[in-house]
Specification:
Blueprint: E1 15-20, E2 23-28, H1 33-43, E3 49-52, E4 57-60, H2 66-85, H3 99-102, H4 105-110, H5 117-131, H6 135-146, H7 166-171, H8 180-197, H9 202-211, H10 213-219, H11 226-240, E5 244-247, E6 250-256, E7 262-265
Antiparallel strand pairs: 1-2, 3-4, 5-6, 6-7
Amino acid sequence: MVLILLALPAAGSDIRPVDEGGRKIYVNDVPTPKEAKQRAQASAPVRLIYWSNTEHRWKRVPKPTPWALQQARTAAAEVSGEVAARPLAGQQTQPVPTAAEANPNYRNISRGRSISAAELDALIDAAAAKHGVDANLVRALIKVESNFNPRARSNKGAMGLMQLMPATARALKVSDPYDPAQNVEGGVRHLRGLMDDHNGDVELSLAAYNAGAGAVQRYNGVPPYKETRNYVRRITQMYSGSGRAEGGSTPIRMERDSSGKLTFTNVE
């Protein structure tokens, strides 16, 4: 008796069993031309395109940056968690807590708690040193974003000193965007990520902070939005010490002392 040992093909391989004259043999699964074409189409990478209202043509969606992918994954995970945590129909639900009950920091904000200039200065210096960002750049950004108001909120929903959007705050694990410490830490970390994605280019990083990294990619530079270009110009001018920012009826000037520390004043 002769024993022939056959290794069964792995699932998904191109070898398949065939009955031939009462015997089972294994043959290569050679597809027909039509099958080969169908397989090639099925395995081809998906190309995503979108219609550009400015260029009036279809364009390929740019490849997302690692930072944008991480934010998207974080947001998706949080949405999945929220959906999974929702009770089934008919189940009793607990009353939704107020903002102050959900996070004690909101109690301080609701009482009108303010932060001193010295406290804020220390927060900025600490976050900037931790993430390797120039503290004076952070100060200029905060000046333009919120005028150093920790309770600032834009009509688009951006919150706090560094005007974090809700999705950005969630991706950065900022549970209370109105808490100065959390806001500055998260905002500086976000800026650091954008600077890493744009090879340290300050103007492109600021444009991405304002208009989004996708817009910077689409236009391969600072987007042609008036708001974004004014935003970048104001911050870079203030950062270099050559600009003036209007605040109320009196121009606010930025000055550096002998140690290089940045200050804002409306005293002529």
